[in-house]
């Protein structure tokens, strides 16, 4: 970096001093904390986004959100040129600059990193960053800090895209880097037109009865409810009622939202007996998670939860069916029956009943460690990769090779057998690839895909919920001296260190029908997380307690000895 660039960073960073005693770490969610201490961090992430843009010679994104956290929190994360999360290789640098104590130290760190990464400031393309924020009141001043960070890199430009869902910003970054138009209207038009295309391809004999035409959505009093109000005007075939849109004076994520509904398994605020039996969905605070539920008549607070595992199962079933139709006998072309590799990606937290169901369908199911980055990476190895976490975060990835084959196959079928079942299957798969957000999990696009598939199948939420019955499960936390003492393998399902604990866990698991349990270190605090499931709730609770005791004996403070 030349002296002019160094002094620019030095001067602007002195406007955003690091608060005393603050130490942050960049994870899957980026940086998150109480909004009042985040200005210097967001400023520095602005610099990071500009450097990432220079390094890749592509546009990057910066999103200000704390997703399902309380309204007083906020956060910041980067969208890489692919539309995915910041590459893991840059996370240590993100931590280093966020926690750098002085402007002088910050300049030194950046200078060293720029040399190591060979980042050129005289490249063909200047840094270009798209900025977005959710509806939190603190977002506006933090966005200003992000802009100042971007502008402290010579020639860098920042475009404020306004209030967005997190997936919208990721979608825009991906689209722009593919040379496509990427305004918010383009996003809405792509979702609504591909949804209409799927609905138009629903077999004529299948039409839902009237109650099933309506969907009630909990918008978590956040940005998702606001955007769904806009999107639903473009969907004349659907009746969507948005509750908790943030306009009624409710508080973001307070007693509402996908995270609350999935964890507590209760009705969000704003839902009553009038909603009994109706299909309901819940978005999280920045609309990157989605769960469905129905209110049970006997008790307005009880729900029948349809979580991310069941969304995954619905998507997998539909895509498998379309691939099967596409493979029906036809002309003898060498590549006609291209063997598409369909992969289902889960973590050890996926309910065992969902994994059994998917395997019974004859699907390839693989596991990764916990964390969206691992799931996304694995799904990208397939022609069609589907991943979801139980919390409702997930998406479908289509390989470029498969999409170009599918496009060619569709053109071939339209010239030879226009309107055939095979051609319709090809069109449905192409529509899914346009509807689903392939950059990240997106509650709005996921919701429309669920709705299109339920229409196609002629299913109510109850038919869907009955695909399989979840095994009862229990999760516990055990405080330990040092979480790094636990080393796991096989996608966190087996403990390698300390020795002997896995054998002891196996002994406990064997005592219960359909028993399964694992432990893993938390990514953020000195606790070990315990997961257990079994055929009945009492057994799952008992197994979780037994395994928690083992974790305490081997690793903890010995309280249970």
From TrEMBL:
What are the GO MF terms of this UniProt record?
A: magnesium ion binding; phosphoacetylglucosamine mutase activity
Query: Which pathway is it part of?
Result: Nucleotide-sugar biosynthesis; UDP-N-acetyl-alpha-D-glucosamine biosynthesis; N-acetyl-alpha-D-glucosamine 1-phosphate from alpha-D-glucosamine 6-phosphate (route I): step 2/2
CC cofactor note: Binds 1 Mg(2+) ion per subunit.
**UniProt keyword list:** Isomerase, Magnesium, Metal-binding, Phosphoprotein
Which reactions is this enzyme annotated as catalysing? Answer: N-acetyl-alpha-D-glucosamine 1-phosphate = N-acetyl-D-glucosamine 6-phosphate
Q: Name one GO biological process term.
A: carbohydrate metabolic process
Q: Out of the domains of life, which is the source? A: Eukaryota
User: Which cofactor(s) are needed, names only?
Assistant: Mg(2+)
Q: Mind telling me which CDD domains this protein's record contains?
A: PGM3 (cd03086)
| Pfam families linked | AMG1_II, AMG1_III, PGM_PMM_I, PGM_PMM_IV
Q: State if Transmembrane helix is listed as a keyword.
A: no
- Record-listed E.C. numbers: 5.4.2.3
Coiled coil located at which positions?
none
Looking at the record, the residues that make up the Alpha-D-phosphohexomutase alpha/beta/alpha domain are 57-90, 124-177
- Please state every residue range assigned to the domain named Phosphoacetylglucosamine mutase AMG1: 182-291, 307-459
Residues forming the Alpha-D-phosphohexomutase C-terminal domain are 490-549
* UniProt keyword annotation of Ribosomal protein present: no
Q: What function is annotated for this protein?
A: Interconverts GlcNAc-6-P and GlcNAc-1-P.
Regarding protein family, the annotation reads: Belongs to the phosphohexose mutase family.
Output this protein's name. Answer: Phosphoacetylglucosamine mutase
| Upper classification of the organism | Eukaryota, Viridiplantae, Streptophyta, Embryophyta, Tracheophyta
């Amino acid at each position: 970096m030349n002296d002019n660039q160094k002094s620019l960073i030095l001067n602007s960073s002195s406007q955003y001093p690091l608060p005393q005693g603050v130490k942050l770490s960049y994870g899957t969610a980026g940086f998150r904390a109480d909004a009042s201490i985040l200005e210097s961090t967001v400023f520095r992430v602005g610099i990071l986004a500009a450097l990432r843009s220079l390094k890749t010679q592509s546009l990057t994104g910066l999103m200000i959100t704390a997703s399902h956290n309380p309204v007083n929190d906020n956060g910041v994360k980067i969208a890489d040129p692919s539309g995915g999360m910041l590459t893991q290789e840059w996370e240590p640098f993100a931590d280093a600059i966020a926690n750098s104590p002085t402007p002088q130290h910050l300049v030194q760190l950046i200078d060293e990193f720029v040399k190591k990464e060979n980042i050129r400031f005289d490249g063909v393309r200047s840094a270009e960053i798209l900025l977005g924020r959710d509806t939190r009141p603190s977002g506006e001043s933090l966005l200003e800090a992000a802009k100042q960070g971007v502008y402290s890199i010579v020639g860098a430009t920042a475009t404020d895209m306004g209030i967005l869902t997190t997936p919208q910003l990721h979608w825009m970054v991906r689209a722009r880097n593919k040379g496509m138009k990427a305004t918010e209207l383009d996003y809405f038009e792509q979702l609504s037109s591909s949804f209409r295309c799927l609905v138009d391809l629903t077999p004529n004999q299948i039409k839902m009865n009237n109650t099933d035409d309506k969907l009630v959505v909990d918008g978590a009093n956040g940005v998702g409810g606001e955007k769904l109000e806009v999107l639903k005007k473009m969907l004349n075939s659907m009746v969507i009622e948005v509750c908790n849109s943030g306009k009624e004076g409710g508080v973001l994520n307070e007693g509402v939202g996908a995270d609350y509904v999935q964890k507590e398994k209760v009705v969000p605020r704003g839902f009553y007996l009038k909603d009994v039996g109706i299909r309901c969905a819940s978005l999280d605070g920045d609309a990157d998670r989605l769960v469905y539920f129905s209110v049970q008549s006997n008790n307005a607070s009880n729900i029948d939860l349809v979580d991310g595992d069941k969304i995954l199962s619905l998507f997998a079933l539909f895509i498998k069916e379309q691939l099967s139709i596409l493979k029906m006998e036809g002309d003898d072309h060498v590549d006609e029956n291209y063997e598409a590799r369909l992969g289902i990606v889960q973590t050890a937290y996926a309910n065992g009943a969902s994994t059994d169901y998917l395997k019974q369908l004859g699907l390839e199911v693989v596991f990764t460690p916990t964390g969206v980055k691992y799931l996304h990476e694995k799904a990208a190895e397939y022609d069609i990769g589907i991943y979801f976490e139980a919390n409702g975060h997930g998406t479908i990835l289509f390989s470029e090779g498969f999409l170009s084959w599918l496009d060619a196959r569709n053109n071939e079928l339209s010239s030879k057998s226009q309107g055939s079942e095979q051609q319709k299957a090809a069109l449905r798969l192409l529509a899914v690839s346009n509807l689903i957000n392939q950059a990240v999990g997106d509650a709005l696009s996921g919701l429309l895909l669920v709705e299109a598939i339920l229409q196609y199948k002629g299913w109510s939420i109850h038919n869907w919920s009955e695909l399989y019955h979840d095994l009862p499960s229990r999760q516990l936390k055990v405080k330990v001296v040092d979480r790094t003492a636990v080393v796991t393998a096989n996608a966190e399902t087996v403990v390698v260190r300390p020795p002997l604990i896995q054998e002891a866990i196996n002994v406990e698991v064997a005592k219960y029908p359909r028993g399964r349990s694992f432990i893993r270190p938390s990514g953020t605090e000195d606790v070990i997380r315990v997961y257990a499931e079994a055929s009945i709730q009492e057994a799952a609770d008992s197994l979780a307690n037994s395994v928690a005791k083992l974790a305490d004996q081997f690793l903890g403070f010995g309280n249970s000895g």
